[in-house]
Amino acid sequence: MARRRNQGRRAAALAIAIAALLPGCATLSPRPASIGQRLAALPTDRMEGLTAPVTIRWNDHLVPWIEAGSDADLAFALGLVHGHLRGAQIALLRMVARGRLAEIAGPLATDIDHALRILDFGRAAPDIERRWPPATRAFMQRFVAGLNRATMGDGTRPPPEFALLGLAPEPYTPADILAIGRLAGTDISWLTWFSLLGERGSPGFARTWQRVLEAGASLTPPEDTGDARRAALGAILAASAKGGSNTVAVAPARSATGAALIASDPHLGLSLPNLWLVVGMRSPSWHAVGMMVPGLPIIGLGRNPDVAWGGTNLRAASSDLFDVARLPPGQVTEGETRIRQRLWFPATRRVRTTPHGPIMTDAAIVPRREGDVIALRWAGHEPTDEVTALLAAARARSAAEFRDSFAGFGVSPQNMLYVDRRGTIGRVTAATLPDRAGFPPDDPVLDPADSAWGRLRDARSLPRLEDPPDGILASSNENPATWAADPPPIGWFFSDGDRLARLRALLTERPRLGVADLFALQRDTLAPKAAVLAAALLARLDALPGGAPEPAMLARLRGWDGDYRAESEAALVFELLLGQLVPLLRSDGSLPGRGPETGWNFITTFLLCDLDALPPERRAAVLRGAVAAAAPIAARYRSWGEVHRLRAAHWLVNLPVLGRRFVLESLPVGGSRETPMKTGHGLVSGPHEVGFGSMARHVSDMSDPDANWFVLFGGQDGWLGSAAFADQLPLWREGRAIRVPLRAETVAREFPRVTIVRP
Which numeric CATH code is attached to 246-315+387-522? Predict the structure, then answer.
């Protein structure tokens, strides 16, 4: 009990460090700020380097539409807008990317910083900058200048959370922006590796690894590691890895308007402020609307007059682990890093690198066996150029130009779907990956002699597809083998296919699809495999001697179609049953290696076969025990939404004692792990809060340049107290969105607030 209390205290102290992923606000009673007041706080005069006035039009949700006479002035205005709306968020993302959390949380975060500095998200920045084409370099430099003007200029006021976190405004460099971009490209495989490294060589490890490969899913770290620092690192990496999303594309022949359609909804952390900004822009080279990651000068998903696009995480294995214990000393470079600690003296830590990457096991909080020396080779340490690729993509005038822009794109690996004005729909695998022969069957750690990093593949040699015969494309983090003929080894952690199956079913059930259909698709809450699994469990319960126990509870589950709508009783009973059954199987000593993990891929792959592998008496005991444990919980609640709660809260909700003041609202919500409207969760034993899922939406219809809609879970402005901090929540809940047009006359009408930024 004492150890748990101590761990809780450490975790509470580390909450500030974890909160660094997204901004917070130190004041407990934030002063309300109207749209007019927030616009009045934007610096507009004496902009160094600006060649002409720039017009920024705003709607009532603080969505900016920037009109500039030169590309350089557009870049400056973009940086200015990012810094004004999300200055604290960008500053704190830099702290994470640079491994500077101890400057916020003190010595409790020093070992986290050490691990982050070994990962070194900025490692490739010098090479990338040297290789930039002149246009990319100029655009980035002016973007950074605008960002610095918004955050460092005369008369600017630091966000209130700076005082709480002990921060002071600092100028940005292009290298900082690249480090933030690499943080956003975190490899989703790392969480599994870091949860397994300490088990290598133990009885059953090879079987565990084989189950990981068979399920095609990640392992989650143990719930109680006894080390809050390790848990905090896992939370940071999980929040940084863009692990989800849906995107669909519809060809003109299947469209109600006779033009191609596209719809995207990214799946990321459900916290405020959002990890996206909605922006419109026009200059000599750019004319586009879309979503941007704060601090990055690129559009991740959006639309120009000729092409619209969106993406989902490829979940590719963009890293490999290597055993470097026997490398010659001359191949190991050793140095020290100095870590500043809030309210304490600086600390120094060792950092070693090899030709096969930095040595991760030098970090105290990375689990390992005694004597292990393991290096991490990551595509994010290569000088790939995502900025140039995405700047080119936003300027593309055809499907072919868009597709070809991704040569040299590296992280995070993406399935990029696109449509163009001519009616082409397609997808391109945007990634840089080693040209592997396969994946190790027994152990994720390779011998350096087996490295495939001397041969790299990118979008030019990875799978692509255009104009499929059925006229639809759907992506939901699926295995490329589901759509590409004989793809090379790309990864092993993919969606189990449930979302993909449901998306395709919705896209094919009507001969013609309209914008309203795509909005409805984004809010769908049905999981086909859940219905199949529920029926299979009921059949096994009914076959027990004496029949199924707790017939009244199980009656609520019978006939369920897999729909996780908030009002569903069946979804509640199913999840409570799983929540008791999976732990019983995991602890059962008769199974080889680990029992079923808690992820959906593991449950759908192994739950039934593991149950059936048990001796009949043991299987009956497990089933009866799970039902008996679930029944009293099910009796207390009426519906899925009563226990499945969506909390709209600022990231400082993690603060001890004060955190509850940062909760805006908590409401019942539908959806689940693998429904199109994803609302992620673990095993369920009662009320819980969703922390990951559908958090932004985009739909575009190529028949009309103005037919583009966006909505965020939250709002545009990161300043707590702003009228635009969470004003889009009602729109998000109700399936509505904000139109962001391309035609100048529509922009002038619908974005009536005008700011002029002057040299």
Answer: 3.60.20.10
